[in-house]
Amino acid sequence: MAVNTYMPQQFPKVTLSEAEEETQLLTEKVYASALKEEDNKDALSMFTVPEDCPIGLQQAKEHELLKELAEQRSEQSTKRKKSLKMIRSHSMLLQMPVNADCSRPVAVTPYLSPSSTCSSVPENCPDYQRVTISGDYCAGITVEDYEHSAKSLLKALLIREKYSKLAYHRFCRTTAQFLRSAENMTWREEDEVLPDMCPCPTGGEDPYSTHNIPEDLNYELKMKDGIVYVYDNAEALRENQPHDLPYPDFETFAVDFSHVLAMIADGPTKTYCHRRLNFLSSKFYLHEMLNEIAELKELKCVPHRDFYNVRKVDTHIHAAACMSQKHLLTFIQETYKADANRVVLENAGQKITLQQVFHSLNKDPYDLTVDSLDVHAGRHTFHRFDKFNSKYNPVGASELREIFLKTDNLLDGEYFARIIKEVSHDLEESKYQHAEPRLSIYGRSPGEWHSLSKWFIQHKVHSPNMRWIIQVPRIYDIFKAKKLVPNFAKMLENIFLPLFEASVNPQNHKEIHVFLKYVSGFDSVDDESKHSDHMFSFRSPKPEQWTADENPPYSYYIFHMYANIMVLNNLRKERGLSTFQLRPHCGEAGSITHLVSGFLTSDNISHGLNLKKSPVLQYLYYLAQIPIAMSPLSNNSLFLEYSKNPLLEFLHKGLCVSLSTDDPMQFHYTKVNGKPRFTRDGLVK
Predict the structure, then answer these.
(1) Strand-pair partners of 18
(2) Taking a C-beta distance cutoff of 8 angstroms, is the pair 585, 604 a contact?
């Protein structure tokens, strides 16, 4: 689809104004505070809120009352309040279900909420009872605070929209319509930017076919400042004239990051967002009280659809743990029965059979149980990511993980492919269930992509009920300690340069080209609670200069992943190829700054637990309708007790949340299609 939306081809270099310098100083204070809090927090009391001091609450109320009284005596404030009341009354008229023509654009101010720009109720909508709120639109806070908060939120949404469009990520249509109205512009459907997905093969079409591959362009490629640049030819490379694509600027991103980070510490904005979130939650409970019976009636009238035959997509599941522990146990026992004498490992030139592996472990496969397999996480893994990672090793043996759960081993990942195909077969039989398993690319060497693509095609792993996500572990420090990479830029080059080469010259990289058709996006994974002393800012060193053994901070990783995905998506869009989304683990633990990075760069995120800590970010995620794949069973074994999980709270407030399994092998006792679901009363397994 042709996109007419104007997108800047180059980011302007940053020159900070005096106000921006002040914002940067505030940001550094907030960042330092977040790091200090991360160091000093009591991990086991996460999200427990201490009782507010009654004296402090009384003083705050008196202060607000004095501000209100001062406003009442101010003629200018009175006029502004009257203007806001008129806007509120006008928006209420728009919401009334009368036969009004709502197709005409309505001029609104930036201070009008997106929900109030909505028009009449559609004819096919159930006859629910609806509530409108009259009176002072900004009741509860002063006009100055209200205007200040609204402008800050508007600016943050415009920043996210910019980064989403540049990377061909989705941006909520309702929010986009509101932003255009706030700018006195008309929203057009053709301006909407969406990711391009390769359609699933139909009929007898071969999903691994290497026919009809686009011709090679023979562009030149070079990584500069951690971002791959594309040049039309060698001469353009010598003259430093890159191909006409948007190339992000690190300093510009750092300044945008600072603006959003400063917002979350701003008092008036926090107060306004907290009140709005409480209002949304109350609105849900009121709707539930008024319309629960009507909703149940509508639900029962839907033909051929119930919980079991509606489409369900598991958007957060790791391939190495996509099976249940019982499934893995049965697979190991059946494989041993058939292949006990097969060579499965090689150690120091010595070939080792599967039988010898079990003998060295003093284990008999037929005596194994799900308990002795020991892959299930529990309370002993709470806040112990190291112990959690060890659960990927059946019976605690890394040899069995190497044999059964790896794509690059002596068997070329045959057993791993077989068990994944069994999982996909279950999904296909259930008909209505789909999944997006994550496979790892580490960045140790550029040959990883070829190896993974070869595994995918050789073992015919494609399923119509599966798409694939590539997860990149944040383990630069491990590779640097082992002298596998000289700097952070080399790790980025190993991850992204093969993708650019396959996009520019697909005839020379046919296997990678075929595999990428079924890849949805990229994930960034590791323990978010790991501390980094480096403060992310526009002063951070370039990736080529990051030669220290220390791991870069989360935001540094996320920006450079986003930057390369953005350039790659624009290049692939030119060629009519599929694009990718950035969908990182974000907000599971660690600093609140991770969620700021996710807000700016990600199409959607996984976990998002720390949104509970920040009303401003939580409200921004609501306004932008950023999808959040939540995994309460996973969180219960790692970072947050089940009873404290904010999933239902987020759902009631209107955030875009979904349930995901994360690691069925470690958290579930049933098959993947026995996923948890939620009811009005809470979560059930």
Answers:
(1) none
(2) no
Q: What is the pTM of this model?
A: 0.84
pLDDT number for residue 56: 56
Phi-psi region of 427 (alpha: psi -120 to 50; beta: other; left: phi over 0): alpha
What letter represents residue 477's amino acid?
D
CA 155 to CA 269: how far, in whole Å?
13
How remote is the C-alpha of 53 from its chain's centroid?
37
**What confidence tens digit (pLDDT) does each residue in 571-588 have?**
999 999 999 999 999 999
**Strand 581-582 to 585-586 pairing:** unpaired
For residue 607, indicate whether it is catalytic. yes
Determine the distance from the C-alpha atom of residue 497 to the mean position of all C-alpha atoms in its chain, rounded to a whole number: 23
Determine the Cα–Cα distance for residues 577 and 240; give it in Å rounded to an integer.
Answer: 26
Which stretch of DSSP H or E encloses residue 473? strand 468-473
- Residue 349: CB atoms within 10 A of its CB come to 5
Distance CA 443, CA 524 (A): 12
Assign 3-class secondary structure to 280-302.
HHHHHHHHHHHHHHHHHHHHHCC
* Closest by Cα among 265, 418, 258 to 328: 418
Pull the structure tokens for residue 454. Answer: 């070869």
Nearest to 536 by CA among 322, 324, 254, 259: 254
pLDDT tens for residues 408-447? 999 999 999 999 999 999 999 988 999 999 999 999 999 9
Rounded distance, CA 150 to CA 147, Å? 5
Using CA atoms, how far residue 154 sits from 116, 150, 174, 189, 619, in Å, is 15, 6, 14, 21, 12
Q: Which residues contact 493 (CB under 8 A, 6 or more apart)?
A: 223, 228, 446
User: What is the amino acid identity at position 252?
Assistant: T
Residue 410's identity, in one-letter code, is L
Q: Which of 548, 320, 284 is nearest to 413 (CA)?
A: 320
E strand residue ranges, 319-428: 343-347, 350-353
Catalytic residue among 376, 434, 560, 607: 607
Q: Three-state SS for 124?
A: coil
List pLDDT tens digits, range 284-341: 999 999 998 888 888 888 888 888 888 999 999 999 989 888 999 999 999 999 999 9
Are the CB atoms for 472 and 496 separated by under 8 Å? Answer: no
CA distance 587 to 594: 6
Q: What are the pLDDT digits (tens) for 627-652?
A: 999 998 888 877 788 889 999 999 99
